[in-house]
Design goal:
single chain, mainly alpha, 61% helix, 0% strand
Length: 218
């Protein structure tokens, strides 16, 4: 598995088989990850379809619970029938606000829809872009920061070596697993994850698996 383009080929995507293989390698390398592997086995693939609907869901998930974001997205689906850039843009901000969107998230979703419609963002082309280029293209959008871009690369593009250091569940899981006195700041989290290259996406899945098990949701 690797993250960048070589020889003109698209970057590889992880699969259930490669996740299991990488999880075994990480467990041999890191005794703390080995504890997760022994307790739970390889982590799920946890993927999402690439495209505009997933980008909208990620925007809705920023700084709120997954449950509340899911409920809001369901209301959007009911209103539109199908979540497309054209249909969402047609609602404009007032229409989204009527569904319960905050002013900020309505603006972000409209900006994303407009960027897709005017060709500024080509979501299909991201599948062939390097991690750095795909991340940069997403972060040019209003309201798409590092966490949102990383989650899209990790979940939708299934890149093997993405580390969303702003993810609160990962912060909690790493703190517990590494027995830290407090939540690690993003630079510390990045430094810890260096040992898990080039499979940081798999390490993230193992840590989410550990986090959800602690919450009784695995």
């Amino acid at each position: 598995m690797h993250t960048g383009r070589t020889g003109g080929q698209a970057p590889r995507r992880i699969t259930r088989a490669s996740v299991a293989e990488a999880a075994g390698l990480l467990a041999r390398r890191d005794p703390d990850l080995a504890q997760i592997m022994r307790a739970h086995g390889p982590p799920p693939l946890w993927s999402r379809p690439s495209g505009f609907p997933t980008l909208v869901r990620i925007i809705l998930e920023q700084q709120v619970s997954l449950a509340s974001a899911k409920a809001l997205y369901k209301r959007l689906e009911l209103a539109l029938g199908e979540v497309t850039a054209a249909r969402l843009a047609g609602m404009r901000e007032d229409g989204l606000r009527s569904l319960g969107f905050t002013r900020q998230k309505a603006a972000y979703c409209i900006a994303a829809a407009d960027s897709v419609l005017n060709g500024e963002l080509d979501l299909k082309s991201l599948a062939k872009a390097s991690d750095a280029d795909a991340r940069a293209a997403l972060m040019r959008l209003k309201g798409i920061g590092p966490w949102s871009a990383d989650i899209y690369l990790l979940m939708s593009l299934l890149r093997p070596d993405v580390w969303p250091s702003g993810d609160l569940a990962l912060v909690s899981a790493v703190r517990a697993l590494k027995r830290l006195s407090g939540p690690p700041a993003p630079p510390r989290l990045e430094a810890i994850a260096e040992a898990w290259r080039p499979y940081r996406s798999v390490a993230a899945r193992m840590l989410w698996q550990h986090y959800l098990a602690g919450k009784g949701a695995a």
